[in-house]
Hints:
The structure is a homodimer of 351-residue chains.
Chain A: E1 3-11, H1 15-32, E2 36-41, H2 45-52, H3 58-65, E3 69-74, H4 78-81, H5 90-101, E4 105-111, H6 124-127, E5 131-137, E6 147-149, E7 155-163, H7 164-180, E8 184-189, H8 195-207, E9 215-220, H9 221-230, E10 237-240, H10 242-252, E11 263-267, E12 272-276, H11 293-305, H12 309-324, H13 340-350
One 3-isopropylmalic acid sits between chains B (76, 91, 94-95, 246) and A (192-193, 222).
Amino acid sequence: DNYFKIAVLPGDGIGPEIIGESIKILDAIAEAFQCKFHFEYGLIGAEAIFKTGNPLPEETLKICKESDAVLFGAIGDPVFDNNPEAKVRPEQGLLKLRKELGLFANIRPLKTYASLIDKSPLKREIIEGADIQIFRELVSGIYFGEKFTDPEGAYAYDVCKYSREDIIPIAHMAFQEAQKRKKKLTLIDKANVLDTSRLWRKTCQEIAPEYPDVELDYMFVDNAAMQLILNPKHFDVIVTENMFGDIISDEASVIGGSIGLLPSASVGEKNALFEPIHGSYPQAKGKGIANPVASILSVAMMLDHLGLKTAAEKLRQSVEHAIENKYVTIDLNSKQYYSTSEVGSFIADHI
Amino acid sequence: DNYFKIAVLPGDGIGPEIIGESIKILDAIAEAFQCKFHFEYGLIGAEAIFKTGNPLPEETLKICKESDAVLFGAIGDPVFDNNPEAKVRPEQGLLKLRKELGLFANIRPLKTYASLIDKSPLKREIIEGADIQIFRELVSGIYFGEKFTDPEGAYAYDVCKYSREDIIPIAHMAFQEAQKRKKKLTLIDKANVLDTSRLWRKTCQEIAPEYPDVELDYMFVDNAAMQLILNPKHFDVIVTENMFGDIISDEASVIGGSIGLLPSASVGEKNALFEPIHGSYPQAKGKGIANPVASILSVAMMLDHLGLKTAAEKLRQSVEHAIENKYVTIDLNSKQYYSTSEVGSFIADHI
Ligand SMILES: CC(C)[C@H](C(=O)O)[C@@H](O)C(=O)O
Ligand SMILES: CC(C)[C@H](C(=O)O)[C@@H](O)C(=O)O
């Protein structure tokens, strides 16, 4: 049926503002496409620490587990960043949520918009037509391995661990996506140095014969960080481990000209979470200047996930319509710009 | 006195060709500046594996330890890259050499050349005037932590470990360099997730008061990967751990327009090694198309290190003279270009 339970986690910084616009969008979708969204709000991140001492309260986790999809804003607060001694941190909330919901694949589509191409620091001929989909492993690796800091503060370590079971599902997902696209999959790793990278390479090599129409190639992460800028059109689908994916996907955001445009989906077997790739951007909080598009396009990925393909399509068209008509926030046009909520309303009205 | 023992390690791929040009340069320097270089050649990398089974033969290590400086070409061979099961790998030779010589700091200066600025994938206004010096920790972290692959191949891990002692010397070096420059030091880490990153942040914070004229700031590696492209002029001196430094410094090479121009120095308490940041580029081997400039500018860093400042200055001028006169290899000008050895000779003749 057409009734969906959405867990809404606005989080920190500009999170609440952009999520406000996404709710506006969902209301418009509900009306236009005869469906119903039931929203349940949860605390997470710094906000949750300030109010409950816990970056991921049990109640929030419960709401998420029972939801059809999680709509996530952003987390992070400079108060914690500059204090290496802090025991509880906003990021722990997001990481624990990813782990508890088993969101093993973070999917980030990247493309360019004709009217924004000149916003990119890269030259037009380098990026025009670039279209990349990144699959980042999200619940293992150095993020979740054992961590230790000696009580005297003399040393510390973080363990990067991967099992074949961690790699197989996301590798299949990436191969399948490549089949639907240009049939090219690039594994980014550091197999000339790391044992875990060699396990990634071996596992992907073993799976490859099941996808004979997909060309699998490998690139060392240092070289990939360079090639993404020199020649982004080289790439179609990318698959990589957690830490490399974090770095590479933020880097790749420059291709589109603004991180404020980029959505992501984090999916697991049972649950799925949708969030902009930008962070909490605390400097912009409350100023009404945050770009809501990344969160709104995350809603489009959520609609796809819920099976509402027509609504997702319509929403993407409405976003493109706003961008082509220069109905954008200050990050995209410093001469003529609109507020977070004006842009959200413009898109909602077009639906 | 003016007698120097140079260990020469050409290595794999285009290594021997570019090292040949660097020797040409050193011969010209010796003549022009009344000094003497004694060259001792050593095997390393894939070449050493093919000839001796060992990527770093004892003999090579001995030559390096007894040298005033090591001149290094490149290592790496696709035969090993695509075989996750290979037990012996060329890279092990370089990594062991770095460790044995205690080369804890890899220093990579990055700048733009007026006549090459349009070669960069980045827009002129983004990069013009960018001038960054990266200090990458080189003998610890995940490169050298415990590694393990389960004999059944079910899982693997790599340990990233840092002690305060690993961080302190390179932090001081970076602070001191910042003092000589624009007095701005950026620590790149992932302190919102990793214990080792928090140790880096804490250690740098503790050292900072000794350099009150230097402004220390922090940036998460994902954000840094983005900011390096959006706004490279934000950065002056960067200090970071081994793996992040590997990724970030290759990425930053796009600023200058060609990785074929970028030198590096790896220094320790007793020894120092000079190498281009590009790799062995096996596809170009033997074709006479490799750009020798990165290796030649590494020689300039070596001359500085040996106290031959005037010679280093003259060499840098000669390189700039060649570039400004479009005496360059095919990577920098596909219409009118010269061979590896023509470019080397042109620079040598100018000295
Ligand atoms: C906030 C942080 C822990 C997170 C990460 O590193 O995964 C963020 O950078 C992201 O990419 O979603
Ligand atoms: C060849 C490889 C082991 C090496 C590294 O990762 O350190 C190289 O990429 C470099 O940066 O010198």
